Protein 1
Amino acid sequence: MRLSTSVAALLGFSAELASAVSTFSPARPPSLPLAVKSPYLNSWLSAGSDGGNGGYLAGEWATFWNQQITGWVGLIRVDGVAYTWMGAPKDWPQVVDQTEFSYTSTRSTFVSTVGGKVGLNVTFMSPVTPNDLRRQSLPFTYLDVAVQSIDGATHDVEVYADVSGEWASGDPTALINWDFGTSNGVAYHTFARQDQQEFAEVNQQASWGTWYWSSAEGDGVTYQSGIDVDVRNNFIQNGALANAKDSNFRAVNDNWPVFAFAKGFGSVGSSSVSTLYSLGLTQDNAISFLGEGSGMTTVPSLWKSYFSNGLDAMTFFYNDFGEASSLATELDNKVASDSLAAAGQNYLTITSLSVRQTFGALQFTGTDSAPLVFLKEISSNSDIQTVDVIYPAIPLILYSNPKLLAYLLDPLFQNQENGHYPNTNAIHDLGTFPIAKGYPDGSDEPMPLEECGNMIIMTLAYAQRASDTAYLATHYPILKQWAGYLVDEALIPANQLSTDDFAGTLANQTNLALKGIIGLRAMSEIAKLTGNADDEKTYGDTATSYIAQWQGLGINQDASPPHTTLSYGDGASHGLLYNLYANSLLGFGDFVPRAVYDMQSTFYPTVALEYGVPLDTRHTQTKSDWEMFAAAIASADTRDIFIQKLANWINVTPTNRPLTDLYDAASGDYPGLQFTARPVVGGHFALLALP
Ligand SMILES: *[C@@H]1O[C@H](CO)[C@@H](O)[C@H](O)[C@H]1NC(C)=O
Ligand SMILES: *[C@@H]1O[C@H](CO)[C@@H](O)[C@H](O)[C@H]1NC(C)=O
């Protein structure tokens, strides 16, 4: 794949909006990440032709992952002439000429020229600091805007940016309040729903908490809140704002209140000058949880452990840009060098797009001494702590900081070990985000074999990486309970769902059985590490016996080439054997014989379609996370086919919402369901999580 592609030209976008054509590097994602930091701070720019404009920041609204507009406007004046660099406000001035878009793991950068006179670089940075919980806990994001003269002359330049009340509620008729202040060198607008409803959402947006939209206090900075068209026109006419607050608190959509800053740079020459903004949502409490004790408890946001209030958190974040930038560059470089070394540029195209999306689905809560990380199963019904959504994401989690996996598993252990779940199998999820009330009546989505295998495999994977055998001892009784379920059910799986529940139920799923059997092998290892020698032998013997039988039941040896089946006895069927990955992740060597790896590796290219290898023979759809699990343990040739097809798909797919993991491998489009911004793309790091 080319490193840089003029997708706009390929797609036939004309010059109606932009007179320049942008390059996209390393690819043009279906949707470009702008502010992607937490489940509620999650805003993107649609690019794919299903509904996007090809990836141009000016002339289209940024949207929340669930597609509501998150009003965000950027304007610039050069020698008194106004241009639009972000958003699609009413009667917007001519757009700047976007020439480049690029992304890294933490940044999205748009490079434009303005009237041929000024260069404009707009960088969205959502920090990801897996080993620095204090910084990771802050639900804030940066926007940096830099300008310089590019024609040898000097120019008068003023830059404008606003956000609208749309960030504060998914209900545009909700009433909001706002204010303006300064603190520690930071000028800020704050706005919030008048009717605060803790733990409630409308259209997936939070109905509680306070938003901060900030910039530097000082020279040439003016501010204003007010009616969208008035405030923007004020800037367009004057290049500055009124330093005034609108005192008429009202609904989000009632004369659209916006919160704006303008920065006058004066005369700008060839050296780059810049202005920095930050945006974030502070909520004292994050999650309602049934864990320890008999009733629901309120779990604070983790940032509360480090900062006394939202204002302190905001000023720290704003003034931390220098350090945050270095940490971001460190992570960008680490992902880049590791991905390039593992499988080259196509692989980096995939991994670097997946970092913010994965971390953006995580809510960091609890306290510094006992953090809890809650995951939102974004777009596929918003379950909280879905075990088979955490599982596909663990490659990135293990790669970045294995401790985070324990913080994700802890809520599941706490809920079930305190007697809040009656079934002997492992639970599927803890409810609907942000209310983790569990299923005291055992009525969760039934995926018993999948989740028993997942819990045991993930717990061991964490303990291995973090050298934490105490964790295994602490949870031994319930792990053993789940292993008992696997002894009874793994070899001949009953008719049931696997994690790919959109495909429906099926008996004797070959891939699902393999997960259960590897789960038993993992339980033997857990027994060994905790000094339970009898259990080590019993589970080990059972796993060894099952894996031998499984090869007889699940492989079509007569096919040319041979392959595993989708379900026992259905010789013509096949599917991605992604559960084999766990055998390698946990270092089990020849427990599953090498011949099985080689067989699948030879087989996959024979059934590959244009954009990937189908998930199974029921449909032409596939899952990008499972493709990367399969790729990670395949031969180099087969691995590269998977990776090349996925990287190409990212660049050309018509899908337009934040990266879907489920797509049609023949058409490249949505297969019907529109999965959006799901954290399972952490699985794209499968190559980098192997021991
Ligand atoms: C924008 O980025 C490019 C590439 O890094 C750089 O050469 C240019 O000077 C930057 N422009 C501004 C205005 O900072
Ligand atoms: C599952 O496979 C076993 C072993 O081949 C077989 O005995 C059983 O009938 C199968 N179950 C179903 C529902 O097909």
Protein 2
Amino acid sequence: MLCKSDQREMGILLVACTLFVLLVAGEVHGSRSHATGEEVKQKFHAPINETSSIRGLIGHVSPHLQDSSDAIVYFAYHGAASAPNGYYGFIGTMDVYGLPLAQGQGSAAAVWISDEGDGAPSSLKNIMIGWDVLPDLYGDSKTHFYIKWTNDGFQSTGCLNLKCNGFQPEKGAAITPGDVIDHVSSPNGAKRNLNLKIIKNGTSGDWLVHCGLDRPPQLIGRFPRSLFTGGFADRAVGITFGGVVSAPITKPTPMGSGYLPTDVKSAASISNIQLVDQNGRAWPVTGDLPKLETNRNAYAVTPIVNGRFYYGGHEQPPMV
Ligand SMILES: *[C@@H]1O[C@H](CO)[C@@H](O)[C@H](O)[C@H]1NC(C)=O
Ligand SMILES: *[C@@H]1O[C@H](CO)[C@@H](O)[C@H](O)[C@H]1NC(C)=O
């Protein structure tokens, strides 16, 4: 019910953001050695289709959401969609936080690599990677590294972490999906960084997942090409990154570090953001991208500047 009334507002927001991005994009992209700013913009900076994005993203933070009439999901993210040739990878760094959450609450930092299909829920295909705190699923309020995937909107394929066959962990990988991230950032002090690189192997078509905690990303496993059908076997239509929370309406949940990004010293960030094209070339995101904030008083994102933005919010004392 929240979503219905909010979607109208989001539609308006979308138009406003899209116009803003289209107006400023030309100014913020400098020319590059092999391509002009205009080419980068065309490649990667098309507006997000918010209607389909939200539908695709809801349910990804909490499997109980659909059954739970009083749970609400909020997003604050940036994203790119509708690039003519699609997307073949994402590179970025998330700082990781600890959050004291109760049953029913969930909070995640995510990159969504997706194809929303024709709009039917079962046509959603995506891969989601990041860190999350989900007491209902893990039985604790610790921060976990997670992956999630589906080829059909979770109707009969896909799952979180290694709960089903699909993701193939690399032997000897330093981190396995579902692992606890013990040391987290302190909002005013040292940061703990999750370095991510998810990139398609141009030969096999597998999505290769690289990840490193406070060190360069190393291969930790893959989503075989054979898991996916249709266009998503070859490329993603959209890539989105930011925060998502779910909670009962009576119990708001911190996103990111819990701090609104008006306080950039304390707010969570995603930095070093790069998008990968069909030739395997990584393009640093030098300008802003469309954003979505479904409750902007509580959860927000800053514009992307030099491949970094801050996000999160909701006043709740963070755990240090
Ligand atoms: C957004 O996605 C929905 C569902 O896939 C589709 O019906 C609609 O036409 C799309 N809107 C735009 C502007 O592309
Ligand atoms: C990419 O795919 C090719 C062909 O299957 C394979 O030989 C190569 O090892 C793959 N690279 C990685 C990093 O998995």
